[in-house]
Amino acid sequence: MLLTFDIGNTVVHIGVFDGDSLVTTLRLSTDTRRLADEYGAMTTNLIHWKGIDPSRITGACMCS
Predict the structure, then answer these.
(1) What's the pLDDT at 32?
(2) For labelling alongside 25, which of 11, 12, 33, 59 has CA 20 to 30 A away?
(3) Are 24 and 52 in contact (CB under 8 A)?
(4) Residues 2 and 52: beta-carbon distance below 8 Å
(5) Distance between CA atoms of residues 41 and 47, nearest Å
(6) In what order do the strands lie in the sheet with 11-18?
(7) What are φ and ψ of residue 6, in 5° steps?
(8) Closest by alpha carbon to 17, among 4, 32, 6?
(9) Alpha carbons 34 and 52: distance in angstroms, whole number
(10) What is the pLDDT of residues 36-63, one digit of tens each?
(11) Is the pLDDT of residue 1 over 90?
(12) Is residue 64's pLDDT more than 90?
């Protein structure tokens, strides 16, 4: 599975792909006061909440 991030000025769009299929999407507000660890914890928890096992994610990509 591939974890993708599109980092914008107001929203971070997150997608999880299994091969060519988009499994789920998430959105987080962009906040410069948040630490990287906070974004990591929120992303992991939200992915798990959506029913996806985070240990199945083998790659990631980002753009802004």
Answers:
(1) 87
(2) 33
(3) yes
(4) no
(5) 10
(6) 21-29, 11-18, 2-7, 59-63
(7) -120, 105
(8) 4
(9) 24
(10) 899 899 999 999 999 999 899 999 999 9
(11) yes
(12) no
Identify whether the C-beta of residue 42 lies closer than 8 Å to the C-beta of residue 28. Answer: yes
7 class by beta-carbon count within 10 Å (0-12 exposed, 13-18 middle, 19+ buried)? middle
Beta-carbon contacts of 10 under 8 Å, excluding residues fewer than 6 positions away, are 29, 30
* For residues 22-35, average pLDDT: 92
Average pLDDT over residues 11-40: 93
DSSP structure class, residue 9: S
* Phi, psi dihedral angles at 46 (to 5 degrees): -65, -40
Separation CA 59–CA 2 (nearest Å): 5
Question: How many residues belong to the chain?
Answer: 64
